[in-house]
Amino acid sequence: MTMLDAQHSPYIRPAKAGRAKRRRWLGLTIAFLIVLALDFWAFYPGPVVRTYPVTSDKIPQGSVCIVQISDLHSHIYGSDQQPLIDLIAAQQPDIIALTGDILDDREPDTGTALLLKGIRDIAPVYYVSGNHEYWSGRYDDMRALLESCGVTVLDNRWEELSVNGVTLRLCGVDDPMMFEYTDDPQYLALSGGSENERDNTRALLDSRFSALDDSAFNVLLAHRAELIGLYLEYGFDLILSGHTHGGQIRIPPFINGLFAPNQGFFPQYGGGRYDFDSGQTLIISRGLSFAAYVPRVFNPPEVVVVDIRANV
Ligand SMILES: [Fe+2]
User: Fold this and answer.
1) How far is the CA of 7 from the centre of ligand 1 (A)?
2) Cα of 168 to ligand 1 centre, how many Å?
3) What pLDDT is recorded for position 1?
């Protein structure tokens, strides 16, 4: 058989066609698996643990582990919150910090009550308010629930703690929506009736935290990440915030959030860690909210762990 005959042989042509067909199927299968993997990665429902080490010359020795929980919005993980409780317990925290919007104005408090009962014996729990808790119009009931579960509410004050040989001032500032909710004359005097969130928060910080000194490592719990410019004017070494939900849709490493409340599209402070020239650090939790109608893309709900230790 000549070469020309072989190319046109009816016995060889089906074999070539079969190889091409197999290659096409292999390509399609690989493409399908890549799409499946990307889909799983993009929409992974979490929760995941994200750990940030923070060191300071103010800490001669020892370490403190803070687990930060933010923006839960009363979502329930599993049937009874146990997966989330187990994840928090596994971090062996010294302190659990709740940085606002733990409860929600449109959801029942059940999910948060389950969480609070599950974590109360793991470590001391501290809380600052978020906007949704004030929007509910029943903040007093929510606060009563928190306190009945042993939570310390840091309502514009601090507690000085000694943990594993580390002196730590744990400070908390209310969400600025507090000014629209409260009828407490001391706060109304600070705001002068204004609803400007930045001005009111500045007045609050001036009145409560201007006397902070450097004798301890100062941590601020504050729900609103977008007010970081204000927080940096005071003596806080570390600020833990939330509110952004990670900007909902991320394309790491290019886009750290599509939209965040009070910051708009492509927020400057979408989520994660920000170190400033002043030596201060901001950590924004991307939160634990999960609603099928508002997808999180490359942005799984997260439990934040902050490992604070000596700078050696
Ligand atoms: Fe919020």
Assistant:
1) 71
2) 26
3) 45
